[in-house]
Amino acid sequence: MTGTPSASAAEMEPPVQVISRARASFVHVTLVLFAAAVVGKAAQLQLIDHEHWRQEAERQHVVDVKIAPPRGAILDATGTVLVETREEVQIIVEPHNLGPSRRKGLDGKVRTVDSRVVLRKVLKDLRVPDKWVKRAYNPKQYKWVEIPLRFAPADVARLRNLSGVKLRPRLERVNSTPEGLRGIVGVATATGGAVSGIERELDHLLRGEEGMNQLVKDGRGGRIGSPMLAPVAAQPGHDVVLTVNQQLQEIAEEALKNARERTGATGGDLLILDPRDGAVLAIAGVRNGKATLGNGLTEAFEPGSVMKPFIISRLLDRGGLLPDQLFDTYDGKWQYGVKKYEDTHKAERMSVRDIVRFSSNIGTVQASLKMDDAEEYQTLRDFGFGVPTGVSYPSESRGNVKLPPYSQLDHAQMSIGYAMSATPLQIATAYASIANGGELLQPSLVREVRDAAGTLVYRHKRTVVRRVLRSETAALMREMLKSVVDSGTSTAADLQTFDVGGKSGTARRVRDNGRGYELGKYNSSFAGMFPVENPQYVLVARLIDPQGTYYGGLVSGEMVNDALQSAIATRNASLDRGELARFARPMAAPPPKPLTPEQLRIAQRDSARFDSLKAPAPAKVEPIPMPSRIVVELPFATARETRRPDAVELRPVPSVYGLSARQAARTLYAAGFQVSLVDGSAVRTRPVTGAMLRVGSTVQLESPR
Predict the structure, then answer these.
(1) Cα 522 from chain centroid?
(2) What distance in Å separates the CA atoms of residue 559 and residue 540, rounded to the nearest whole number?
(3) Theoretical Cys-Cys bridge with 469: which of 35, 48, 140, 473, CB 3.0 to 4.6 Å?
(4) Facing residues of 65 across strands?
(5) In contact, 424 and 559? CB cutoff 8 Å
(6) What pLDDT score does 181 carry?
């Protein structure tokens, strides 16, 4: 048994583990790929996505605090601030944190003060309502109290660095604009959000550029400054200086208010423009007792007879009319097509001058027939109607002028201010072209713009759109418009000290639905210039639905008169006083006041004393007798003897319609005629107006007893 083993050695040894090459290769490859992925991801993070993750880290650790820029101020033409941005402070109280505070005094020493005592005194001085004071001292109900008032930084300076008290600065937009101008200036917040008016139109200049302050978050979420993160300062907005004169604006608003109270009108407008450079000096508007949002620019209406001078002036300019040319006016009633026209001032015939002076519908329509549809349309467009004026305002109305061809009725109606519409600004700009010698100007509400450093960025310059009249025609039209005020339909606008020119308009008002006209409702307007010889103002006045007397020349003319008198009496109302003095009328000295009995007694006593001191009268000298006949030898023939028979000058008899006998006699004398007064039923001439007579001939002037 000894040679025979009990078990084989192989059976007694443990089995050998065989390593799989495939499995080992898989593990190795996996580890290599994993390592490559780690290295690749690290490379991506460090090299490719470095900037992204740096910004993400900053976003989580750094807070960007936007710094709102102070919005630019808006000033009037004299430099008076109308709208500005001011820094104001809101008080925030943490009632549970009120208590002792360590503060450095003015002397540099650190002292402990009780914030409760200081806060109470400051709130009392600022007259904060009691309910907010009680909340600020009630830690059981309130952990955070924001007092809903704003204060000047200097008024709350004592609260700085007090425990439990925080001061939150705010920028506030403060508006001190006259009420009637607020719609033009518009609305905006201190940091942006312009809503309307100039604030919206020039928002890109007024709002400035935002700044940025970067703060680091601490472990508790608090914010601390870092010297490594430099703040970017906010850039204040530009300051805008308007062409509007605040004093003249207040005068316009007061004149409009007085006119509404006087006439019972529901609303109205008064716009004043400088015809020399197109600057809008004042613009007031009221609807139903409230100031409007720019209706002088945004609301177009049918203006009526204030449009007549433009048709007449264009015909005069091209030679289609003569100033003394006569038109049949049929005693104030005339049928043309489907429309019956009537004149308030009735006459059989009128010259072109009188058509303007007495606002003849019949005469104007007949004159307009001398131009075709295309020329009528072009005339109105040339004077700026039917297109925006280009003023800096976001919602200016362009009005309405129809495109030709026109019906017979529309052609006639447009010549007298119907079947079209215009804004007060368009009317003022058109009248300015007559006032300045024939140039249509682009109006402006902005005088200049300056940046935060005071550097001039923009200044308004006189901009000529086109020439619409020859200077001679414009001067002739100013003469005609002067007659409208001194003896025509608008005598209420006349001043004792200066000559005013203008034209009235009394147009029926269109219904709100645009269909037909309101019964007894009128737009009563007047467009004028002052002084007429060299105008510094063009004024457009309008009253809506005046009660009782509704003629534009009377109610709106009186409004213009009121505004002009106030402007003349105001030192700073955009008037050149030296230039104005050249055109002042000489005023008659007032009659002497009667003496009181005491003054009369003293005067008689002094006169007696003076007579007693007089030197004796000189001896009487006998006069030298004069010869009964004097012979004078003339060395040359008289003008009567040398004048040729065919050189006799003939002139038309001028119109005296609507004048008093005294005014009519002066008119005839000025035309070169002798006058013989005879009794009659009305003021009129024989021969009739327009008859050609030799200069020096006698004209019979009928005058009622």
Answers:
(1) 24
(2) 10
(3) 473
(4) 213
(5) no
(6) 87
Domain boundaries, the chain: 66-242, 246-581, 648-705
For residue 573, the surrounding DSSP H or E stretch is: none
66-242, CATH topology level: Penicillin-binding protein 2a (Domain 2) (3.90.1310)
- Which residue type does 281 have? L
Is the model's pLDDT at 291 over the cut of 90? no
Q: Is the pLDDT of residue 80 over 60?
A: yes
pLDDT at 60 over 90: no
Instruction: Please state the rounded mean pLDDT for residues 520-548.
Output: 96
Chain centre to alpha carbon of residue 351: 37
Specify the CATH architecture of the domain 648-705.
2-Layer Sandwich (3.30)
Element holding 633 (H helix, E strand): none
Measured in degrees and rounded to the nearest 5, phi and psi for residue 256 equal -65, -40
Nearest to 544 by CA among 305, 360, 356, 302: 302
pLDDT score, position 61: 67
Letter string b/e over residues 646-664, b meaning 16 or more CB atoms within 10 A of that residue's CB: eeeeebbbbbbbbbebeeb
Two tokens at 532?
A: 């007429």
Q: Taking all residues of the chain, what is their mean pLDDT, rounded to a whole number? A: 84
For residue 278, the tally of other CB atoms under 10 A from its CB is: 28
What CA–CA distance (Å, rounded) separates 296 from 264?
20
444 band by pLDDT with thresholds 50, 70 and 90: very high
Residue type, 94: E
Report whether 315 contacts 290 (CB < 8 A).
Answer: no
Report the C-alpha gap between 661 and 656 in whole angstroms.
9
> Which of 314, 184, 199, 201 lies closest to 244 in space, CA to CA?
184
Is the peptide bond prior to 687 cis by the omega test (within 30 degrees of 0)?
yes
Report the C-alpha gap between 71 and 173 in whole angstroms.
Answer: 8
Phi, psi angle pair for 618, to nearest 5°: -65, 160
Question: Worst-scoring range by mean pLDDT, 528-542, 553-567, 609-623?
Answer: 609-623
Task: Please state, in angstroms and rounded to a whole number, the distance separating the CA atoms of residues 124 and 621.
Answer: 99
Q: How many whole angstroms separate alpha carbon 224 and alpha carbon 146?
A: 23
- Cβ neighbour number for residue 192 with a 10 Å cutoff: 16
> Which residue matches tokens 């009487």?
620
What's the rounded Cα separation, in Å, for the pair 528 and 553?
10
User: For residue 609, what are the CA distances in angstroms to 293, 364, 613?
Assistant: 73, 70, 7
First to last CA, the chain: 185
The pTM of this model reads: 0.73
Choose among 193, 439, 196: nearest CA to 297. 196
Q: Which CATH architecture has domain 246-581?
A: 3-Layer(aba) Sandwich (3.40)
pLDDT higher than 50, residue 1: no
- DSSP structure string for 160-200: TT-TTEEEEEEEEEEE---GGGHHHH---BTTB---SHHHH
Q: How many residues does the chain have?
A: 705
How far apart (Å, rounded) are the C-alpha atoms in residues 481 and 478? 5
> What phi, psi does 81 have (nearest 5°)?
-75, 125
